[in-house]
Specification:
- By secondary structure, the protein is an alpha/beta fold.
- It has five domains: about 80 residues; about 110 residues, Beta Barrel (OB fold (Dihydrolipoamide Acetyltransferase, E2P)); about 270 residues, no CATH class; about 50 residues; about 160 residues, no CATH class.
- It has 21 helices and 21 strands.
- The strands form four sheets. Strands 1, 2, 3, 4, 5, 6 and 7 form a seven-stranded mixed β-sheet that branches.
- The longest helix is centred in the first third of the chain and has 28 residues.
- The two termini are about 55 Å apart.
- The model has no long low-confidence stretch (mean pLDDT about 85).
Length: about 700
Amino acid sequence: MIWSSRPFVRIFFPLVAGIFLAYWFPFFRESGSLWLLILTGVLSFTAYLLYRKNRSWKWRWLNGMLFILAVISVGIFLANMKLEKDTSFLNSNEQNYVAKVVSEPVSTEKSVKMILRLERTVSEDTIRINGTRVMAFLHRDSLSRKLQYGDIIVFKGKPVAPEGPKNPEEFDYAAFLALNDVHAMVFLRQDDWNLLGSEEGSIYVLAARTRNYLLRALQENGVTGNNYTVAAAVLLGYDQLMDPELEQKYVTAGAMHILCVSGLHVGIIYLVLSFILGFLRRNRVQKIIKVVLLLILIWFYALLTGLSPSVLRSSVMITLFILATLLARYKDVYNTLAASAVLLLLFNPLLIFNVGFQLSYTAVLGILMFYQPIYNIVYLKNKVADKMWSIVAVSAAAQLGTFPLAAHYFHFFPPYFWLTNIFIFPLSFAIIGTGMAFMIFSWVPVVSGVLGTVLSAFVYLLNYVVGLVKHLPLNGIYDLYYPWPKAVLMYALILLAIPLLLQRKVKLITPALIVILLLVSLNTRHKYQVLKQKKIVVYSISGHSVYDFISGNKHVLLTDSELLAEPQKLDFHLDNSRISWGLDKNNLPVDEEIENYTLDLFYDGRFGVFGPVKFMVWNEKKLYRTDQPIQVDYVISAGRRKSDLSLLNDIVEFDYLIIDSSVPYWKLKQLSEQAEDLNIRYFDVKAQRAFIAEIQE
């Protein structure tokens, strides 16, 4: 790589390093920025004195070192600006706040979810809140359903900090909100809020209302059901209505990228607009007018679709491309890609942690690096066959760029992605092209009706093709376990293997074998840890009893019937830990009798034995006195029934009381007070975290 011709590539890596330092290490959030900036200044002055007195080449390395330190310090400073938020109001009592709706409200079964930006408190001493963003859940009614982006409300409530994960490996929703600049949550009843008015004149409000108009226009012109759901996601980035079953079909087919407004959409819009504005090219003034119109329309569409990371990336890249063309500057694609990333990170450094941002850039990088070597494998004279092979090559290159990340985050690989994309690419072009025409002519009755019918037909065909994949054998590789070390090594292997296999770079054999050896070592270590494990886990899922008995790569998970009927909720809380522990799904009702000789587990619905451990589930069943106290290691308290811990203590001898997450607050308070009076050790799963007992045999 020629670094001098790619300055933004040189900037990107130290900038990201600075952001990581600020995010991962508290030291840099407290005083790191200041000290690093001082150090950079001292070194800069020293380098200046040395270089002025002695212009020897041996001191030139200081320039590069100082440049790197300076960019790192910028990354630390920018990240701190985003991470440091005033959340002192979270400790205050219930107050009145004036807030603005700054996201598209989403209706669920019981509530309407939206992001509010707190403007100020309403009191004698008005206090500005510095624009803190809060995730709000309003009781669903006719008024809350009418709220729109830009509406201003006053509400009475007490925003609270979102809770972190309570279960092993669970998705950290609080961290996710923080990375999206949301630092609190509030739940509002019907009488807790009132609408004050609406913001006018904002480009963001205009974009949001235009999107709502187009969504209504789609439905009014015959695009309904799943066709409407997919069309709204593909054309406008509105994916809140996606049916889980339909979404899973797209995941299995390896076609989820179609449902996200991405560079493909922006690229098609750019080509169409360039063609329409092609007459503006006679002189420099017309060319400038064309560039201004292109940029306005492209960025308005980006606003229209919600400014997702992939749209931001492609919009910035196309903006740089357009400006470079106008100025007749050399366009290096890697430098342009890095420049777009740097500009976005300067605006919001926490974007580097966004999964969509990471996948968008690695997909493009994969295409840039691997498309041509893959395409050159096969030469086809037939133009149709050549186009199909080109689509396969692009798909394979993008998969190589995103696979380690996708495996890390989603634990899944779609084997038929190459086959699906042969059909999906032309269909997506047809849908986006028809959709653009529909947006332009949505106000013309007859034309919009015809375009709506054609669009609905294309989307129906897309859904049909995607749905066929689930009927193919081996349609998905599930439960992939790719922690960060393994994902990084897999990227290293891909970077070495492609030139080694496709370009015959034999000198890469040794480093490739070293990486393979490290990957095998990681897998072997993980399998050994899985086979040696034996544990009891009482999970924390509010309102439910969930117990896991794990021995090696086998387990039995016991839970209540309500949670068994909600597999998506169960997977959200437990799938990551199940995959990291090397387990298959084996979920059973908590009141079912079990005799599992493989696990050495015996359970009759109340008392159980797991290896050397004896336990009791203290549930709704009546407790009877016995001649001799029953001896167990753990008592797990469950359910809503009022319980007398002193009576239990007379009947059962136990070492530890575990209060599971099905226990309501009033009973939890009662049990904790009784346990403290009786000097009984207890563990509150709901308030603390999942209880894990490692068993040594």
